[in-house]
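EI: anyone free to look at a 445-residue chain?
SC: sure, send it
EI:
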Amino acid sequence: MGWLAGSIYWGGACYWIYGVMHSYAGLSAPGAGAIFMGFFLYKGLYLAVFSVAAGPLMKRSWAIPVVTALWVSFEGLHQYLAFTWLQLGNAGIEMPLLPRLAPLTGIYGLSFVLAMVNAAVAVLFLRRLRREACWLAPLLLLPLLPALPDVAAPQETVRLVQPNVLPDELRSGGWDHARHAQHLARMAHLSTGVAAEKNSTPPALVIWPEYPVPAYYSMDASIRGFLRRLAMSVDAPIIFNSVERGGADGKQPLNSALIVNERGDVVSQYDKMFLVPFGEFVPWPFSLFVEKITLEAGNFHPGGRVVVTEVGGHRVGVFICYESVFLRGVREFVRQGAEVLVNISNDSWYGGSAARHHHLLIARMRALENGRWLLRATNDGVTSVIDPIGRVTASLPSFEQDVLVARFNYRTELTVFTRWGQWFLWLCWLAAGGGLVVSLRGRLS
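SC: here you go
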């Protein structure tokens, strides 16, 4: 039953994977369906193992807290074992009290509360809730949690460029020299002309998304010259995406975020550390059937370190696309001094599905956990600015070519989660492990 429930959840939450495999990997409908089925049957195994472990625990008088800890323990495992996506705690970001937990415990505190209520419902069905309801008493303390901090009026200006370059454009004709030049001209217009018409305030940052136009900064003198001239023209640092090379032989492709300063000089390069399964690499055994799903995808090489860059007297942390799901990775940027977070992403592969809104929801939680403004530039939506308590303060409609001119602030305060990391997850691992040991000993004695 757990396997069935887990498969339904992952198939339902990630239904868009079929469309990506069929539309952009070039797989036939049966082939894409087979890959998709293999995905959700594999991910369903997590809930199958949870169910096997939770069954004996539910017979104990302390079932509510320990089974809840077990749930959170399995949620934490997803970020270490292949693909992770929506976690239960994401559902609580709009609730009145639960968001107060995120700066303390990360998303796991929210997941714990929601799972605890569900565990209590299960105990209710077992007709034991009156006897064990005391375990719910800590939930009465939620109103005593520190309120989320007031957000000061933002003073800094950012330009977030949304070029709306669709994957179908690439597939239909490729990027010859003329089309490439036209696209760069549009990017320059969005970065300067359109933005200046909307707001004449000089920006602190100009941010381009991760997008499917071949950009090889280190290997293309014309791109280097273009970006140098553009940075000098807007008189602001530009954050952009490039395919670079690295590895032991210096030939491995890297998905990189580069920053050029207002003089057009490269001041940093961050190489994406957490790669997208089926996008930037194809995990075995699926690699036996499909090599890649996007034109710029394949066997990318992961980066090895977090990079925080000083720009204009402040420190900026840039992470790429799917890395927003890894709370331990995003937290590391802030722990190493980032005063604002930047997420560049290409969500066009999601098409019109709900996945682009899932991705925004996940990014909101990262901002809330770390108490940082998060500036999110995407290829075709949802380009947004998120404040330190997880609210979207400005955004662009999807599938429109435009530039978002918005305001943000730099912040230096550190949340408990940023200082101490996944301490709450470790406690859940300890509680769940202890409960399983006691339960096993009881069954053997």
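EI: The chain has a mean pLDDT of 89.
SC: 👍
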